Every structure is written in structure tokens, then in C-alpha cells.
């Protein structure tokens, strides 16, 4: 276990798991503070942790409280994030400011990757990552999630990038940043609510041993993040055609 930053506060459970080299999976907290209404946000946070425990790993939900990066939030801390006003949205840019000013902060995908890496946690599960926004040729609106994948040695498992983004440019940007993108039992990049975006992937894995072997070599070569795209289960998936039509209509408004 690496020596963490003095700003890292590990829960006893997470610290014990890391010392014993048990599997620990990081979870973001922006979905709690900014993504869902109360009390659904608290229920979802608990459900995510329960799902990880059911698979034999230790969940480590991450948030910023009172000048510390708390890794392995208590229910009280999760509830505070889910009910408080003016919770900061913390990416790499915001981390030092939020810590120094002792503001309450919820970590984004990028912020969670960074904090997990600082604590020696190599795995992170989330819903969908950010990406290159439509019209980025003029706005330069590119999510920090993509650059953080090239900086932090963390394997991120997600349902792809959100379908409202420019998925072609998102994949191009990840390639430029040297981030491996691997389809979990799929040849097609998933798009959050949509199982298949129509964008083929260069790499696919059909079992966890393959993913583990790739990650091990990636980090032994002193390379950084990896992205594993795991399509949303069929029973929850949306038809891409009406979703794309609704997105196009919204962009015209």
C-alpha cells in the first residue's frame, strides 16, 4: 500500500482492505450531490455500495469534507452530501481550492480518479463518463474526465460516454491521449442509456482475466488509465433513434 497524501482520510474498512491487498472499488459522489434528487440519491449510493459488496469487493465512495478527502464515506457523510446546499463539484482543477477553503465537495469522474489514485485504489465504477461536447470545434468543451484517464493509473468501468456528446470526437480524443478503450463483451462503444453507439472499438475482452492481464501490463509499463465500456443491461436500454431525435431537437432550441 502506497503512502497516501496527508489530505487523504481512509475509512477503517478501506484502509484495512488496502493493507490486506483486497479488492477496493472507488465510487464518485457527484451523482449524490448533483445527479439525483433526495432521497433517491442516498438510496442509489447505498445500492451501488451493496452491489460491490455482493461481488466480494469493498466500496470506497469518495467526497470532500472539512479539508479532507474522505475515502469510504459513512452513511452520515453520504447523507450530508445528498442534502446540503452549495456542494462544490470537484474535479482536478477544484481539489486544492476545496480542501484549502474547507468546503463540502462531491467528486466528479475525473476528481474521483485522481483521489483514488492518490490513495492507491486502482479500480473505479461509474455510470457514464464525460467526453467531447457537440460543437467542441468552436467551444473547446472537452470533459476533464478524458485527460484524467491519461494521468491517473485507474481502470474505469462504465456504460460508455453519455449519448448527448460527440462520440466520434470523444473516441478520437481518448486515442490521442493514449487511453485504451476496451469493450466488455462488445465490439461497439456503449453510449450510457444506449447499448450500441455504432462506433466500433479496436479492443474487446470477454472475461475478467483478460481485463486484469491488460491492466497489470499497463501499470507495469508505467502507463496510466484504462476505460472499459460495459453496455447497460438490455432490460434498461433505450432505443437510440428517439433518444437521438430528442437530443437534436433540444440542441435546436
Supply the helix-strand structural class.
Answer: alpha/beta
Instruction: Quote the CATH topology of the largest domain.
Output: Indigoidine synthase fold
Number of helices: 11
Gyration radius, in Å:
18 Å
Low-confidence stretches: none
Q: Give the strand tally.
A: 11
Task: State the separation between the terminal residues, measured CA to CA.
Answer: 51 Å
User: What is the overall shape?
Assistant: globular
Instruction: Please name the fourth-level CATH homologous superfamily of the largest domain.
Output: Indigoidine synthase domain
CATH architecture title of the largest domain: 3-Layer(aba) Sandwich
Secondary-structure element pattern, one letter each: EHEHHEEHEHEHEHHEHEEHEH
Main pleated-sheet profile: 11 strands, mixed
User: What CATH first level of the largest domain would be assigned?
Assistant: Alpha Beta
Question: Considering DSSP H and I runs of 4 or more, what fraction of the residues is helical?
Answer: 40-55%
Mean pLDDT: 96
The tally of structural domains comes to 2
Q: Which band does the percent of strand residues land in?
A: 15-25%
Report on this structure:
This protein folds into two domains: 1-126, Indigoidine synthase domain (Indigoidine synthase fold, 3-Layer(aba) Sandwich); 127-253, Indigoidine synthase fold (3-Layer(aba) Sandwich). It is built from eleven helices and eleven strands. It has helices at residues 12-19, 30-35, 40-54, 75-83, 92-100, 109-119, 136-139, 144-149, 167-176, 208-220, 240-252; strands spanning 8-10, 24-27, 58-65, 68-71, 88-90, 105-107, 123-125, 155-158, 181-184, 203-205, 226-229. It starts with 7 loop residues before the first strand and ends with a helix.
Amino acid at each position: 500500500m502506497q503512502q497516501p497524501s496527508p489530505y487523504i482520510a481512509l475509512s477503517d474498512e478501506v484502509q484495512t482492505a488496502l493493507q490486506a491487498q483486497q479488492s477496493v472499488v472507488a465510487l464518485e459522489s457527484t451523482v449524490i450531490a448533483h445527479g439525483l434528487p433526495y432521497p433517491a440519491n442516498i438510496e442509489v449510493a447505498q445500492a451501488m455500495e451493496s452491489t460491490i459488496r455482493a461481488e466480494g469487493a469493498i466500496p470506497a465512495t469518495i467526497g470532500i469534507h472539512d479539508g479532507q478527502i474522505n475515502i469510504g464515506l459513512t452513511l452520515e457523510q453520504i447523507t450530508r452530501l445528498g442534502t446540503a446546499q452549495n456542494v462544490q463539484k470537484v474535479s482536478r482543477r477544484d481539489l486544492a481550492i476545496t480542501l484549502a477553503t474547507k468546503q463540502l465537495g462531491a467528486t466528479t469522474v475525473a476528481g474521483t480518479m485522481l483521489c483514488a489514485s492518490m490513495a492507491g485504489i486502482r479500480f473505479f465504477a461509474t455510470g457514464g463518463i464525460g467526453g467531447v461536447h457537440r460543437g467542441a470545434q468552436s467551444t473547446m468543451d472537452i470533459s476533464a474526465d478524458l485527460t484524467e484517464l491519461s494521468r491517473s493509473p485507474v481502470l474505469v468501468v462504465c456504460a460508455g460516454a453519455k449519448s448527448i456528446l460527440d462520440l466520434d470526437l470523444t473516441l478520437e480524443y481518448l486515442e490521442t491521449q493514449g487511453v485504451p478503450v476496451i469493450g466488455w463483451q462488445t465490439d461497439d462503444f456503449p453510449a450510457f442509456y444506449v447499448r450500441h453507439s455504432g462506433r466500433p472499438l479496436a479492443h474487446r475482452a470477454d472475461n475478467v482475466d483478460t481485463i486484469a492481464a491488460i491492466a497489470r501490463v499497463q501499470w507495469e509499463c508505467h502507463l496510466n488509465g484504462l476505460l472499459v465500456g460495459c453496455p447497460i443491461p438490455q432490460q434498461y436500454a433505450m432505443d437510440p433513434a428517439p433518444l437521438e431525435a430528442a437530443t437534436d431537437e433540444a440542441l435546436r432550441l
